């Protein structure tokens, strides 16, 4: 860069700084306040101690999560064992007359043997096959099933992490989304989830960390609430006790 160009850039920087100062001085004057040039002291960082110490019992966490998830428009049910949970999903698929389903490649779902129990349903398992093919399958699926990593009682939220066998589209594209979660994965508040993610992954988070609170909803056009535009319009959270 030539000296002339450097001088031009320096003058432009000075002009920009002057205009910025004039802008903020004008705002301070209109607000009848002194112009602040130094960031104010902020002695507190993060959540207060009382909130960090706040914890619900397991049963209270389950109850609060189910209440908040339902209030957000979702459906939820608790199951004593994997067999009863599997029967519920199979009954739902038969009631819906589902033809296409897609699921995570997860040991818990593999154990259910849904492919054998639902012979009339084309079941796709999200794995490392061609992504374009999986996206087409997910977009055409009646039901998507995922085992989520966390649930948050205070917000009625489930949290699903993306991985090779856990594609985001499983929870995003099907008509109905089913989140399967264990009782032990229900946390009281969101901070616990964030802390555990940091413990597990540090700065190397998965490509996707998805927070899902009820069915997809949008009201950005004339405040008209519409369900299921940007994702599943029907969502189930199935809680497994064991």
TrEMBL record:
<dbReference type="InterPro" id="IPR003741">
    <property type="entry name" value="LUD_dom"/>
</dbReference>
<dbReference type="InterPro" id="IPR024185">
    <property type="entry name" value="FTHF_cligase-like_sf"/>
</dbReference>
<dbReference type="InterPro" id="IPR037171">
    <property type="entry name" value="NagB/RpiA_transferase-like"/>
</dbReference>
<protein>
    <submittedName>
        <fullName>L-lactate dehydrogenase complex protein LldG</fullName>
    </submittedName>
</protein>
<feature type="domain" description="LUD">
    <location>
        <begin position="66"/>
        <end position="240"/>
    </location>
</feature>
<dbReference type="Pfam" id="PF02589">
    <property type="entry name" value="LUD_dom"/>
</dbReference>
